[in-house]
Amino acid sequence: MSLCKERLVPEEKPEAVLGKSNGDTGKKSKAVCGVCSRMYRDPKILPCLHTFCADCIRQREPFSERRVNGERRSPEDDTHGRNAGSTILCPECDSEVDLPPSGVDGLTTDHLALDEVFAETLLVGCRVLCDLCSDSDSDAGKRCEVCCVNLCDFCSQAHRRQKRTSSHSIQSLQELKSQGRLSRPVLCSLHPGQELRLFCELCDLTVCLECAATFHRDHHCSSAHEVISHHGDRIRDLVVGSLRPRLARLEESLRRLDTSQEALQARADTLAGEIRAFARSYASAVEAHCCSLLRSLEDLKLQRRNQLNLQKAQLQQALSDVRGGVDFAERLLTCGSDAEILSAKGVTMRRLMNLVEAGFDPHPTTVAPDNASRICFLPQESAGEVQGFPVVGVIHTKTVDPSKCTIQGEGVERGREGQRGEFTLVCRDSSGEQMGRGGDPVLVSIVHKERKGCSVEAAVVDKADGSYGVSYTPAEAGLYSVWVCVKAQHVQGSPFVLNVKRKFRRHHGVFHCCSFCSSGGAKEARCGCTGIMPGGFQGCGHGHKGHPGKPHWSCCGSVVEASECVLHNLGSVSPRGHLRTVEL
Questions:
Q1: What are the structural domain ranges in the chain?
Q2: Residue 269: CB partners within 8 Å, gap ≥ 6?
Q3: Taking the complete model, does pTM exceed 0.90, yes or no?
Q4: What number does CATH give the domain 402-501?
Q5: Which of 517, 513, 495, 504 is nearest to 553 (CA)?
Q6: Which of the chain's termini has less CB crowding within 10 Å, N or C?
Q7: How far apart are the C-alpha atoms of 30 and 43, rounded to whole Å?
Q8: How far apart are CA 525 and CA 509, in angstroms?
């Protein structure tokens, strides 16, 4: 179809011709191409229903190639033009759209866009030139709605005088401008001046009268006014029945999504404020705890310094007293005569004896440098709450004293061959209080006292409260020496003697009153006791010689039901006493 090419001359600014915006509303003009941002020139509709200039579509790079008749088709091989028969991406929605085999020219022309272009030219106040006048500088004041041409006054009068165009409707451009929109006929591209008034059902194409008489002679062609209701209703049904509700749902979903995003942002901002407030409060609590720890450390330092100063003063006084007594006694013995020594002997002896009996001789560990290292900081230990926040880190002044550490549990004194034994080591400080924390170096060694090289591996578990669980499993019976050391020093009572007994021996007989009863009177039945029954019976019986007078085990003769079998300890029992009574 032929397109109307308006002859426009801008009076002031070229931007007015481009029509980038519709007034001051900020909305994009419907007469402007979204690619070149200029008014449409030969606008074409893509399959996705977005309109662009034909040249703008031709300049799009093919997204992919399609095969035509089994052969790959490329734009260079296409005789119909660039991008013909290929797939491109829509500049508006990025959809993959297929171009017809005839290329861009085969796309449908957007006549509504052409109407918008002409309406835009009237609204922006551009200078419209006459399309028919030979004088290229003639202004057009009228427009033929049928031919879609702009006419000056002279050409307008000539247009009316011609027989072929005398019936055409010619309106003033000012009138069209006041209407705000255009309603013009669509002309045939093959027969200029002929309006597309018919619709070919077979070809699904609008045609003019001449096209219907020539190219569509055998086709059923109806008037456009007759079929517009049918086809228009189909479009209307799709829009109103399906797409409008879906559009409403999509818009509602989008609004909800926007609301959710706003709520998410608001919630995130609120939580960010809460987190920052929490961090400030927590930092304040940590800072307060830090200050408290530093104050405690300073107080502890002053207390220990006072103790050291007191010890220092006591030591200096003791040193002065001892040095004075020693110096006087040595000078008396060295320089004094016998008479002088004997005369001063009494007072000298009394002073020296007082110095000896004073006994101020502090233990080296109380003044050793290690005394300061007993103060330690435990960063992982809970320190309770400060300003409602749990904090960690305490100053610990206790140190383990191996001589005060104790052992709990029978597993350190007695054990059983092949069975797990356990005992607990409780570490205490010099005042006898439990340490309350772990981490002390604990060493446990279990060695057989008689067999060299025979030892038992011990497992030590730190319970983090000042106690340590020790477990072991001896493989052999006998006496063992158990060494328990903390900081390479023996604890109280170490080394211990561990008596490991043999594995518990179960009874293999029956606990009965006598072999006569338990065997049902069998003469060959024997018992572990020393009882003898006359009459040819080999076992024991009630009231007969050797019967223990109470129930006993048939395997070893023990009268204690819950006991260990002592068969291996019976050295004086006759061989038949070792035989077991038949179990019934």
A1: 8-198, 237-367, 402-501, 505-584
A2: none
A3: no
A4: 2.60.40.10
A5: 513
A6: C
A7: 11
A8: 12
Residue-wise pLDDT for 339-397, tens only, equals 988 999 999 999 899 888 876 555 554 455 555 656 788 888 788 898 898 998 888 77
CB-CB contact of 39 with 117 (8 Å)? yes
Give the count of beta carbons closer than 10 Å to the beta carbon of residue 27.
9
- The two tokens of residue 244 are 């409008």
Residue identified by tokens 């960010």 is 272
Mean pLDDT of 298-306: 88
Dihedral of alpha carbons 487, 490, 495, 498, sign: negative
Rounded to 10 degrees, the C-alpha dihedral 476/478/479/480 comes to -10
Which DSSP state fits 91? Answer: T
Q: Which two tokens stand for residue 547?
A: 């019967």
Candidate from 193-197, 212-216, 418-422, 531-535 with smallest mean pLDDT: 193-197
Going by pLDDT thresholds of 50, 70 and 90, the confidence category of residue 18 is very low
Phi (first) and psi of residue 465, to 5 degrees: -130, 20
| Sign of the dihedral defined by the CA atoms of residues 544, 546, 550, 556, in that order | negative
pLDDT at 529: 86
β-bridge mates for residue 222, sequence order: 199
Tell me how far apart the alpha carbons of residues 429 and 402 are, in angstroms, rounded to a whole number: 8
| Location of structure tokens 């007191």 | 310
Highest mean pLDDT among 21-25, 36-40, 93-97, 274-278: 274-278
CA distance 97 to 104: 12
C-alpha to C-alpha distance for 228 and 223, rounded to whole angstroms:
9
Contacts of 550 (CB under 8 A, 6+ apart): 559
Which residues are 199's β-sheet partners?
A: 206, 222
State yes or no: pLDDT of 83 exceeds 80: no
CATH of 8-198, one of 3.30.40.10, 3.90.950.20, 3.30.390.10, 3.40.190.10: 3.30.40.10
Three-state DSSP class for residue 154? helix
Tokens representing 164 are 């072929």
Residue 46 to residue 98: CA distance in whole angstroms: 9
Do 546 and 532 form a contact (C-beta atoms < 8 A)? yes
Query: Quick one: CA dihedral 101, 104, 106, 107, positive or negative?
Result: positive
Three-state SS at 423: strand
Q: Are strands 96-98 and 496-501 parallel, antiparallel or unpaired?
A: unpaired
Q: What angle do CA 37, 39, 43 make, to 5 degrees?
A: 105
Dihedral of alpha carbons 461, 463, 469, 471, sign: negative
C-beta contacts of 324-331 below 8 A and 24+ residues apart: 325/351, 325/352, 325/355
CA dist., res. 84 & res. 81, Å (int) = 6
295: amino acid identity, one letter: R
Distance CA 512, CA 530 (A): 14
| Tokens 């062609």 belong to residue | 221
SS (H, E, C) 185-244: CCECCCCCCCECCEEECCCCEEECHHHHHHCCCCCCEEEHHHHHHHHHHHHHHHHHHHHH
Q: 423-457 burial string, b = 16+ CB within 10 Å, else e?
A: bbbbbbbeeeebbbbeebebebbbbbeeeeeebbe
548: closest CA among 516, 514, 581? 514
Residue 183: band (very low, low, confident or very high) from pLDDT cuts 50, 70, 90: low
